[in-house]
């Protein structure tokens, strides 16, 4: 199994419809935090950098990284392979957040946890605890 459907608690928190909130979903799943709490923290970080106070329409990688650093998470480059790009299944054991093109996804023990199967997309790098 490469993919598990999870909205990170978005629907349970009362959010409806669709949104570009992959950063909030991934962070809630990987860090085991409440979606609404994560969403508010990311929205506030956006506002502090002169952006809209929202986490609904995507996150800048640097701002996202700054928030994750507060939680003890750091950026790591994707593993290198001869002849192919890294994928979610190549991520290390445990929970990480993988950075893909225009997308963040929680990956737990090599399995993507998201609202859609993004396992075909290459991984540029990831955030992990420590």
Q: Brief description of this entry?
A:
This protein has helices at 22-31, 35-48, 61-70, and strands at 3-5, 73-77, 95-100, 103-108, 111-114, 125-129.
Main traits of this protein?
alpha+beta, 6-stranded mixed β-sheet
Biggest sheet, in brief?
6 strands, mixed
Mean pLDDT: 96
> Helical content, roughly?
25-40%
Number of strands: 6
- Give the helix/strand class: alpha+beta
Indicate the overall shape.
globular
Q: Please write the string of helix (H) and strand (E) elements.
A: EHHHEEEEE
Distance between the termini: 27 Å
Strand percentage, roughly?
A: 15-25%
Number of helices: 3
User: In what order do the strands lie side by side in the largest sheet?
Assistant: 1-5-4-3-6-2
Low-confidence stretches: none
Query: Rounded to an integer, what's the Rg over CA atoms?
Result: 14 Å
